[in-house]
Amino acid sequence: MTLESLRQNALNRLAVRMTALAERWLPDAFVFALVGTITVVLAAFATGMQPDAVATSWGSGLWSLIPFTLQMAMIVIGGTVVATAPPLARLIERLARLPRSPRQATVLCAVASMVTSWFNWGFGLIFAAVLARALARQVKDVDYRTLAATTLLGLGTVWAQGLSGSAALQMATPGLLPPAIRAIAAGQNAQGAELLPGGLIGLQHTIFLWQSFAAVAIEIVVVALLIAAITPVGAHARTAAALGVDLTEPIDDGIGPPRHPGEWLEHQVWLSAVVVVLGAAYIAVTLVNAEHMAAAITLNLVNLALLTLGFALHRTPARLARAFAHATPSVWGLLLQFPLYGGIAALIVDTKLNERIADLLTRIATPTTFPPLVAAYSALLGMFVPSGGSKWVIEAPYVLAAAHRLHVHLGWTVAVYDLGEALANLVQPFWMLPVLGMLGLKARDVMGVTWTVFLVMAPIVLGLVTVFGMTLRWPV
Fold first, then answer.
1. Please, are residues 174 and 200 in contact by the beta-carbon 8 Å criterion?
2. What is the pLDDT of residue 6?
């Protein structure tokens, strides 16, 4: 048996065993939100908090994330709507004709996933899934499992360092975080004045740092080389046909010509054009008038850009409405879980648990070791609470407090949290579910590849956040 055969067999055995363990022992992500709620409630009682105070704190925080919940839902829906628009579908078919070998196909899909996910993780996830299906039709003998796995690599590496990075956008957008967290982020100087007015950290101090751009570039190159090395070829490859996946089914959007006079307006392009002009004008004015362009890019602006593109690419209100209807089922998990995370965050702040955890982080960390500690902790928690934005609401109070105490750059603290959060998506299947249905596969089919990427990238990411963190100074 050749060395390549041994490697491929070992990888397949590892993927099957680890996925079987996860499917047997790990509950649904919603259960982790419930367990987290119970844990924090018990911790509140342990601090001496009275039952009525616990209930009041939890209940008042339950709906504190309503704006953020809707914004994250729109990220998912908007990304899906844009990626499935007919002009994008035609572009994807052209891209799929470029590779001449299976390895070129998987590398192209991996790079496309990472680049598009930097702009928007929801768009990148769906764009890469559509591209994977097109590549499987065009490239003979390409391993369909690896193609499917590459669609997840943007979400598992660079997305959180991009324009839809939830923690960075939360810190840059007023109104997305409870006032108590903003106060912690603001800090105070020796005279008692706020170090960061309003507790806001602009994107120029997080995802637009040169250190963040460098980390993203390094990740893309390393992952592309890794995928080229591990893509099965020849007898080891399993095509879509071998896996029983039908790639020939046409996509029918169900939109025909108007049948009644009342439907006429639903098919008028000019109605959509009005929204496109208004949206584009607002975005242009906002960017031109901003003191820093980076500071102008908030979650609201990103969502408006996706909505505007959706109107432009689908052309008629009827087609846009159908695209939204197809995209909305994927956001039920956000709507169900985020209120619980708001209640958890309120209890953590009101019981001052954040200060105690900050004390622990401060005792075991130094200014040099704090960034990799935050990244590793974020990755670990992300395996059980697969939501960057809601996790940040829970973690922000004590992570930011510790960063202030250790005099670590706060923007880089947010950035390394995001880097760690992305890694978690390579080892748990929560965010894989929206595309696995499109691709006709199960989690066990792709996690051998994603776990291999995790094992390689985890030490690289921890090294990057440590080295780059030494080039930055507190507070921002």
1. yes
2. 44
Distant-in-sequence, close-in-space partners of 405: CB < 8 Å, separation ≥ 6: 358, 362
Could you give the CA distance from residue 46 to residue 239 in angstroms, rounded to a whole number? 56
What contacts 473, CB < 8 A, 6 or more positions away?
409
Q: How far apart are CA 451 and CA 322, in angstroms?
A: 36
Closest CA to 323 of 292, 62, 315: 315
Q: What is the DSSP string of 204-225?
A: GGTTTSHHHHHHHHHHHHHHHH
- The angle that helices 317-327 and 66-83 make with each other, rounded to 10 degrees, is 120
472, 466, 395: which is closest to 185 by C-alpha?
395
- Provide φ and ψ at 62, rounded to 5°: -60, -40
Contacts of 326 (CB under 8 A, 6+ apart): 80, 84
SS (H, E, C) 31-100: HHHHHHHHHHHHHHHHCCCCHHHHHHHHHHHHCCCHHHHHHHHHHHHHHHHHHCCHHHHHHHHHHHCCCC
- DSSP notation for 104-150: HHHHHHHHHHHHHHHH-HHHHHHHHHHHHHHHHHHSTT--HHHHHHH
User: How far is C-alpha 431 from the geometric centre of its chain's CA atoms?
Assistant: 8
| Ranges of H-type helices in 195-331 | 210-230, 269-289, 293-296, 299-314, 317-327
Find the helix or strand (DSSP H, E) in which 151 lies. none
The domain limits of the chain are 30-244+267-469
Name the stretches of the chain with pLDDT < 50: 1-4, 6-7, 12, 15, 19, 250-251
Give the tokens for residue 234: 């020849």
At position 195, the amino acid (one-letter code) is: L
Q: How far is CA 189 from CA 68, 202, 323, 399, in A?
A: 30, 19, 50, 18
Residue 2 burial by CB count (10 A; 0-12/13-18/19+): exposed, middle or buried? exposed
Q: Which two tokens stand for residue 133?
A: 């299906």
Q: Which residue has the tokens 């008028």?
A: 268
Distance (Å, whole) CA 461 – CA 287: 32
The first and second tokens of residue 16, run together, are: 């099957």
The values of phi and psi at residue 259, to 5°, are -100, -20
Burial bucket for residue 147 (CB in 10 Å: 0-12, 13-18, 19+): buried
